[in-house]
Amino acid sequence: MKTIAPTIAPWFHNYGLRATPKNQRLWLTASLVMAVIYGILFWRVAFAGPYTIPDDGRQHLFWMLRYVDPSLFPGDIIADYFQSVAPAGYKALYWLGAQVGLHPFLLSKLLPPLLGVVGTAYCFHLAMAIIPAPLVAFTSTVILNQSLWMWDELASATPKAFNILLILAFLHYVVRQRLLLAALVLGLQGLFYPQTVFISVVLLGVRAMWPHRQRHAWRFLGLGLIVATIVLLPYALDTSPYGPVVTLEQAKAMAEFQPGSRNAFFYDDPLRYWLFAARSGLLPPVVPVTICVALFLPLLCHPRLRQRLPLLQTITADGAVLHQLGIASGIMFLAAHGLLFRLHLPSRYSRHSLKIIVAIAAALVLVTLLDSALRRLGRNHLWQQGLALALVAGFATVTVGYPCLLNSFLNVVYVNSSHTVLYQYLQQQPHDIRIASLAKEAENIPPFTGRSVLVSPGHSVAYHQGYYAQIRPRILDLMAAQYSPALAQLKSVITTYDIDFWLLDEHSFNLETLPEQWFKQFEPELTTAMEQLQQQPPALQRLQPTCTVVNDQGKTLISAACMLEAQE
Predict the structure, then answer these.
(1) Taking 90 as the threshold, does the pLDDT of residue 212 lie above it?
(2) Distance between CA atoms of 111 and 350, rounded to whole angstroms?
(3) Which residues have a Cβ under 8 Å from the Cβ of 373 and sit 6 or more positions away?
């Protein structure tokens, strides 16, 4: 009677490791099915209610309501600013969608799974070029998909959502020696996520100087430089009304860039600053935890171990592209630190690349160890049969079944708001109204109502001085007016900024939670506000009962016209 261990090993090698056309189609199909499943799970979140939007979409998508109704957000510096900094290809894609009847928010929900499926195909083929083992390629796609869907980048449908796909496509065409297609993808990188162009050009330069370099390496570099110049030149020549970019010295002196602030960048802990911080750190989030096994690849590639691991001996010369990608990303990461903030944020040059590198490396380690173990289970003992089954089951659990081990798999940071009464009321108001608020809910007003806010935490980015120089005084004036006992000061701010409504939440006048609000970095304004709140009720709080027009689950909308008519 046949035993299980000798049966499993041949099946594993014949169907998992042999790069026959049939096997490749089988495992590519499995990869795409997994990507589709993750996409469907995402759609369950994205379409969970009428007021849903990706967290970053509240900054990078809301202004696209102008594609549906050009009369929205008139004279709104926030909408104008975020529209101006959006890459050209990103804007064009959503504009085209609007022209054929796809609302920008609907398109933002449809795109991520589609990007995930296409990226999965490129990842599979790239992994096959590096090591011709279909199971390794499949495992790479599974780990990469889990990494993408356990964070908010792909789900955001913002420019960064396109980055992984464009990196994978570029690497695929480079290793396949498809010059024109690589140049085309490089151009698309400039149109959707310009920072990636620098990584790609540096990678081509590294390949041109690489020992045993591929033929045509210099031709790739030359054409790459031409394309990069063409797509980046408009950015270099652009004279933005919101510039210049904040300098390193200015940022260090600003509370906005300190820990806990909206644009937190600088940290005293060097490990956090250089490795783990979201904006300054080198490393991506450690999700899924299976990517940690990638750390063992250098050990397994040691000559004394590698000769005992047959699968590692099948790595092709194209495997060097992962080293080259890591080097290029590292160079640009350091360059971005050296030129803060002219190349924007350093983490943008490393996190996406490392996700690709560690996904393929982790898959290679896992399959190599499984292959090595199964090769040694050749005797017909019962314990060997059980161990073989356990190894295969364990491999499936830590790869395909990993999401089942978690309480919550998708971590796409999607906003699902239920303040329907508030939004419907504001949607009925004229397009040119302006809402003042220090509440976090202010972030949701533009996307869910199409109406302008004076400030909000998500829109208070401090990278461009010309923009933030207009936003910061608004924040300080709202703080002074909201917590002042003097009605005259409140009326003055309402008149100065032509405010129509003032939005409060359940924390607006709570002394205990006030130090935890997003504007806590503004001193001495916060201390003054707390002192005033302790002494007597602010004028805005006194008028709240008589001037409220909407009260929706703790969110209170107050009429500015009513407050202007009030008397001391």
Answers:
(1) no
(2) 24
(3) 387, 391
Residue type, 561: A
Q: Is residue 146 a contact partner of residue 50, using CB atoms and an 8 Å limit? A: no
Which of 127-141, 323-337, 507-521 is the least confident region? 507-521
CB of 312 closer than 8 Å to CB of 301 = yes
Give one DSSP letter per residue of 350-385, joined into a string. Answer: THHHHHHHHHHHHHHHHHHHHHHHHHT--S--HHHH
pLDDT digits (tens, 9 = 90+) for 377-427: 755 565 566 677 788 788 888 889 888 777 777 878 899 999 999 999 999
Token output for 122: 């490129």
Closest Cα partner for 219 from 185, 192, 180?
180
Nearest alpha-carbon partner for 329 in 356, 296, 290: 356
Contact yes or no for 214/320 (Cβ under 8 A): no
Q: Of 116, 189, 110, 107, which Cα lies nearest the Cα of 148? A: 116
CB 539 within 8 Å of CB 490: yes
Is the Cα torsion angle 39, 42, 47, 53 positive or negative in sign?
negative
Rounded Cα distance, 280 and 340, in Å: 10
Of how many residues is the chain composed?
Answer: 568
Pairing of strands 414-416, 52-54: antiparallel
Q: Which of 452, 437, 553, 448 is nearest to 504 (CA)?
A: 437
Q: Where are the beta strands (DSSP E) in 116-247?
A: none
Here the tokens at position 438 are: 């220090």
What per-residue confidence (pLDDT) applies to 5?
A: 47
C-alpha span between 15 and 20 (Å, rounded) = 9
244 secondary structure, DSSP code: P
Helix or strand holding residue 209 (H, E)? none
The CA-based angle 410-411-413, given to 5 degrees, is: 130
In angstroms, the CA 20 to CA 16 distance is: 10
Alpha-helical runs (H) found in 211-340? 217-237, 248-253, 270-271, 297-300, 303-306, 320-338
Map residue 456 onto helix, strand or coil.
coil
Distance CA 550, CA 380 (A): 76
DSSP per position, 281-302:
-SSPP--SGGGGGGGGHHHHTS
Residue for token pair 């829109």? 459
Q: 429 Cβ partners below 8 Å, 6+ apart?
A: 451, 500, 501
The span from the CA of 327 to the CA of 335, in Å, is 12
The answer to whether the CB of 123 falls within 8 A of the CB of 140 is yes
**Rounded to whole angstroms, how far apart are CA atoms 54 and 132?**
37
Whether the pTM exceeds 0.90: the reply is yes
Q: Kindly report the CA angle at 160 between 442 and 327, in degrees rounded to 5?
A: 140
What's the gap between Cα 247 and its chain centre?
24
Predicted pLDDT at 206: 96
Residue 145: predicted pLDDT: 96
